[in-house]
Write a sequence for this structure.
DNA sequence: CTGTTTCATAGACTATAGTCTGTATATTAA
DNA sequence: TTAATATACAGACTATAGTCTATGAAACAG
C-alpha cells in the first residue's frame, strides 16, 4: 500500500475533482449559462474526453454539487429539537432547507436542477437525490400518526409526495418570478395552509 | 381596399402560419426534441430567416399554441354552473384545466412551457399568459369573501398565487415523474387539502 | 520481462440552435 | 414615375453541447 505512486484511479479522481472545482468556480463568477464546456476544459487544462468521461453533461456538475444536500439533511436531523409537533417540524425543515438552497446552493444551481428534472429520459434526481428528504418526511408522518396528530388512515407515501410538492412548487415559483420573490416567506406561508388542511382533514375523520 | 393583391403583411402572416402549422404537425408526429429547426424550415419550404423573423425560438412556437389556453378559460367560465361553493368551483376549474392540458396540449408542449419558464431574462408567460387564470381565481375568491366563505382579511393576490402554485406544483411533478403519474387525481387530491387549509384558517379567525 | 488488454485522456468531428448579411420586392416619398 | 427606404426572406455562418476515434500509459497475464 504505497502512498507515493498514484494509481490510475486515483489520478482519474483527481482529474475529476479538478474539473469539478474549476467548473464551480467559473459558474460562481460568470453564471452557469455564461460558462462553456470548452472554457471549463481549457481552464482546467483538461479535455472534452476527460470532461465527458467524468460527467454526463454540463448540468451533471451541478447535480453533483446538489447531492451535498444530503449533508444538510443529516445535520438538520441531528440538530432538530425532539419536542416539536408535526407542523412545527415540517415548517422548521422547510425553513432550514429553503435557507440552505437559497444561500448555499443559489438560484443558478437550483435552476439547473429544476431544468434537468424536465429533461426526458434523464434519470431524475427527484426520485434519487431527494430520497433523504422523503425519508425525513416519512419519519415525521409516522411519528405524527403514532402521536395521534394524524389519522392512521392517511396514505403516507402520498402525503410525502404532497409535502415535497409544496416545496417544489415554491421553489419553481422562486425560479420563475425571480429575485423579488421571498422564498422563505412564500414557502412557509404556503406549507402552513397545506398542513392546516392536512390536520383538519384528519380530525374530521 | 383591394382583395386580390396580397399585401406584404398578409403574405408574412401566411408564411408565419404555414411555418407554425408545419412545426406543430412535426412536433405531434416526432415529438418536440426530435424535430430540428432545419427540418421545420425545410418542410415548410421556408428559411431560417423567416423562422426567426416570426418566432424568437423553437419553444416560442409552443408558447404561441399555449396561448390558446385563453379560449379554454373563456369556455370554462361560460359553462360553469353558478350555484357552486368556492371549493367546488376551484376543484372543477382544476379538473377541467388539467384534462385540457393533458389531452389537448400534451406533455411535450407543457414541458416546453415549463422549461421556458426557467430560462432567465425570457419574459415568462406565467405573468402574462396566465393572467386569465389569475382573473378567474380572483373572481372566485372575491365571491367567496362576499358570501362569507372566506374571511375578508385574507390577501387575495397572495391566495391567487398559492392556488395557482398548487397547479404548477402538480404539473411540474407530472412532467418529472412521467406517464404513470395520474395528473387529474394528483392535482385534485392536492388542491383539496390545500383548500381545506385555506377554509379552516379563515374559520378560526 | 514481454506482450496484451484496459482505460483515462486528447482533440477532431458532428449536430443543431440561433445570428448575420445580402437581396429582391413592396412601400413610401418626391 | 422614379428614387429612397423598409422588410420579408434566403441561406451562409457562428457558437457550443456532446460524440467518436486514436493514443499512450498503466494494469495485468504468462
Amino acid at each position: 500500500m504505497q502512498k507515493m505512486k498514484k494509481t490510475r484511479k486515483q489520478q482519474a479522481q483527481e482529474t475529476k475533482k479538478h474539473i469539478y472545482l474549476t467548473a464551480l468556480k467559473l459558474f460562481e463568477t460568470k453564471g452557469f449559462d455564461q460558462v462553456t464546456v470548452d472554457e471549463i476544459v481549457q481552464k482546467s487544462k483538461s479535455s472534452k474526453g476527460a470532461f465527458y468521461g467524468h460527467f454526463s453533461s454540463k448540468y451533471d456538475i451541478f447535480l453533483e454539487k446538489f447531492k451535498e444536500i444530503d449533508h444538510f439533511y443529516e445535520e438538520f436531523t441531528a440538530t432538530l429539537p425532539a419536542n416539536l409537533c408535526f407542523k412545527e417540524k415540517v415548517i422548521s425543515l422547510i425553513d432550514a432547507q429553503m435557507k440552505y438552497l437559497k444561500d448555499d446552493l443559489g438560484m443558478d444551481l437550483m435552476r439547473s436542477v429544476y431544468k434537468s428534472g424536465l429533461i426526458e429520459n434523464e434519470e431524475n434526481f427527484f426520485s434519487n437525490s431527494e430520497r433523504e428528504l422523503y425519508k425525513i418526511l416519512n419519519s415525521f408522518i409516522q411519528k405524527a400518526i403514532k402521536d395521534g396528530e394524524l389519522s392512521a388512515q392517511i396514505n403516507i407515501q402520498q402525503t410525502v409526495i404532497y409535502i415535497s410538492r409544496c416545496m417544489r412548487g415554491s421553489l419553481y415559483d422562486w425560479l420563475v418570478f425571480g429575485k423579488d420573490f421571498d422564498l422563505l416567506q412564500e414557502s412557509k406561508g404556503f406549507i402552513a395552509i397545506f398542513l392546516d388542511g392536512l390536520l383538519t382533514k384528519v380530525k374530521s375523520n
Observations:
- Residues 70 and 132 of chain B are 7 Å apart (CA to CA).
- The interface with chain A takes residues 33, 111, 114-115, 117-118, 120, 124, 126-127, 158, 161-162, 165-166, 168-170, 172-173, 175-177, 186, 189-190, 192-198, 200-201 of chain B (CB under 8 Å).
- The two ends of chain B are 64 Å apart (CA to CA).
- The mean pLDDT of chain B is 91.
